[in-house]
Amino acid sequence: MADKAVRILVRLGIGGMLAVNLSGELFPHQICKQMYGLKDEKGMLIEAPELCLKQFREVALKSELNNPEKVSLFVSKAFHAISAGSTLLPSGAVIGLPRWYLNRAKSDVENSGIKFDGKPITWDSELGQTLTESYLPTENMIAFTIGHEISHIQRLDFKMLEIFASPLWLYLTFKMCSLIPKIWKLHGALDMLLKLSICGLNYLCYKFMKQKVDHWSEFIADEMSAMCEPKVAEGGVEYFTRRIKLNLIQYKLLGEEGRKFYTDEGDEIKSHTHPKLTERLGKLRKIQLRTDLSKNSSQDR
Ligand SMILES: [Zn+2]
């Protein structure tokens, strides 16, 4: 009876995970865009600015993106970019740009309502100036972000892993637990303890592997974007340099509290799905150096 109930729960879990993971990719307009899209006071989605659309057209061409007309750009209400779907699917793909990519002048940042530690910002302070600099995107930064998200929508291998990894983990864990009584005839508490240990260990392995794959996917997306053109690589270096600088200032100003969120190098402690900012910056600088060297050598010829 208990076994039957567990089996039903596992089936429901696998079905639920597949449904959630697949629907995000199959219906990017209805789910990702609606959930993350920045809306005006009438509830209408805010259109992506022409500057961003122009960068998209250029980067899509350089990235050799198939069917770029099937990508819809939008402004996200979050401070980071997001994407879902694929141009190979009938419903296409969406790319959400950080809301601060709408900022065009210093005054836009100052009027954006950003607060620090719950208090208004003194804009001529070191923090105020760094915030203004950090939240004013350059064309190259916009191009880099778009290139990064284009890589995410192009890489179907990573998408498959993202969709099937969690249901597969649940299925394999269940299978391993059901094999135990056939191998060892354990009773009561011991049997339960072994099954719980398998669940725990499998979960730790899954978490470890998922983080490795997520980080790998981020590095590849950074690389694909930066390889488009030297100015896009420059945009990536600029993006991470500014973010690290802002984190370092917050680390300094928040004192003891800051140590919970940032390292003394400017990395974000609580960010597990993305690699360290300093590592990403280091890799981008190497790509930038390589592309600059090849550009110079082709000019010399
Ligand atoms: Zn990414």
What is the compact description of this entry?
The protein is mostly helical and 301 residues long.
Order of helices and strands: HHHEEEHEEHHHHHHH
Low-confidence segments, given as residue ranges, are none
Strand content: 5-15%
Mean of all residue-level pLDDT scores = 90
Query: Could you estimate the helical fraction of the residues in percent?
Result: 55-70%
> What's the number of helices?
11
Which geometry do the CA atoms define?
A: globular
Oligomer: single chain
Structural class: mainly alpha
Rg from alpha-carbon coordinates: 23 Å
Strand order of the largest sheet: 1-3-2
Bound molecules: zinc ion
- Main sheet? 3 strands, mixed
Distance between the termini: 78 Å
Keywords: Hydrolase, Membrane, Metal-binding, Metalloprotease, Protease, Transmembrane, Zinc
GO molecular function, one term: metalloendopeptidase activity
Family: Belongs to the peptidase M48 family.
Organism: Acropora cervicornis (Staghorn coral)
Protein topology:
Elements lengths: L1 H25 L2 H8 L13 H13 L8 E5 L6 E4 L7 E5 L8 H5 L4 E2 L2 E2 L5 H9 L4 H16 L1 H28 L4 H39 L3 H25 L3 H4 L15 H24 L1
Parallel strand pairs: 1-3
Antiparallel strand pairs: 2-3, 4-5
Helix pairs in contact: 1-7, 3-6, 5-9, 6-8, 6-9, 7-8, 8-9, 8-11, 9-11
The chain binds zinc ion.
Task: Give the tags.
two-stranded antiparallel ribbon; mainly alpha; TMEM177; metal ion binding; 301 residues; 65% helix; single chain; 11 helices; three-stranded mixed beta sheet
